[in-house]
Amino acid sequence: MKNFKLKFATIAIILALFSSCLVDDDVTDFGAGTRIIEFPLSTVDGTFDIGMDEFEFQASARLVGGNGSPAPSDIVVTYEVDQSKTTAIEGTNFTILNNGTFTLLAGDTDVIFPILIIPSSLDPELSVPLTIALKLTSATANFPVGVSTKESTSTVVINLKPLCPITDDLSGTHTYTQTSMQYGDGTGNGTGTGIAGTISGSVTWTEAEPGKYSLDDASFGLFEAIYDDDPAVGPDGAFLTWVCREFLFSGSDQYSDTFTYNIISVTGPVMVFTWRNTWGDGGTVTLTREGGVDWPDIFQTN
């Protein structure tokens, strides 16, 4: 798989070198010029225990430009709720703190600031999570600084995902079959070339902490069967966190790719889900819980 991926990486490098020769008048170079405050991610998941009365979610922002040097003085940043992308209700589901301001301190390039979440007001069984969208509006300091005007870095959408009370331990050695497999194209999409047949085996989930499980193969046999490669686990591990009706992935595989899992159906001890990683590999897995024990009621769909 490593050689397979390197071929695509080489092509990507060539294209990047070519594109660097082109001039885009819409792009501003902040390398050594005016510095800006931006959000590092356009979307983040806010997870918390549904039983908590209040929870301070820590949003993050950063200073870019100036060749990466830290802020020479404090920067006071203001932001507002972008109502067009917010489905949660301010004052009911969340509260903006400090009048919508935070300060990036002199000597720093990163800052975190709190948003107050009210978990008791949220329904953990919502099929689509409520959202809070924050938009940067201004930055003030004694040196030239501004806020990003790019859609992808000026606004962050926080998906509110309450954790249900953990009443089951999902660890164990579960058996699987996998079909509808595809090679990735290196950009997060499948190549369109389907992989015929079915693979089967077992995967072990080990509880790392309540509701969070390490996997011994995040690809459920695909890396070994298709690429003759090691199981999909990075040096720091691959993990699933149980968030009510879904699993959130953390960690990576040995190529620093991350994974997304989408549960399709659950009947008794049998769970069917699709997965894809950021390289674009993917498939459909039918997972049977160890011992034929039913998955928790909250997963059951049929």
Task: Write structural notes for this entry.
- The structure is a single chain.
- With 302 residues, this protein is mainly beta.
- The protein folds into two domains: 35-163, Sandwich (Immunoglobulin-like), CATH 2.60.40; 172-299, Lipocalin (Beta Barrel), CATH 2.40.128.120.
- 10% of the residues lie in helices and 45% in strands.
- The chain has helices at 2-20, 151-154, 222-227, and strands at 35-38, 43-49, 55-64, 75-81, 94-96, 101-104, 110-117, 131-140, 145-147, 155-163, 172-184, 190-195, 199-209, 212-215, 238-243, 246-251, 259-267, 270-277, 282-288.
- β15 and β16 (246-251) form a beta hairpin.
- The chain is globular and about 65 Å long.
- Residues 6-31 have low confidence and may be disordered.
Largest sheet: 9 strands, antiparallel
CATH third-tier fold name of the largest domain? Immunoglobulin-like
What multimeric state do the chains show? Answer: single chain
- Unreliably modeled segments: 6-31
Number of helices: 3
The average pLDDT value, as a whole number, equals 87
Tally the structural domains: 2
Order of helices and strands: HEEEEEEEEEHEEEEEHEEEEE
Q: Give the DSSP E fraction (strand runs of 2 or more residues).
A: 35-45%
**CATH homologous superfamily title of the largest domain:** CalX-beta domain
Counting DSSP E segments of at least 2 residues, the number of strands comes to: 19
SSE topology sketch:
Elements: H1 2-20, E1 35-38, E2 43-49, E3 55-64, E4 75-81, E5 94-96, E6 101-104, E7 110-117, E8 131-140, E9 145-147, H2 151-154, E10 155-163, E11 172-184, E12 190-195, E13 199-209, E14 212-215, H3 222-227, E15 238-243, E16 246-251, E17 259-267, E18 270-277, E19 282-288
Parallel strand pairs: 1-9, 2-10
Antiparallel strand pairs: 1-3, 3-7, 4-6, 4-8, 5-7, 8-10, 11-12, 11-13, 11-19, 13-14, 14-15, 15-16, 17-18, 18-19
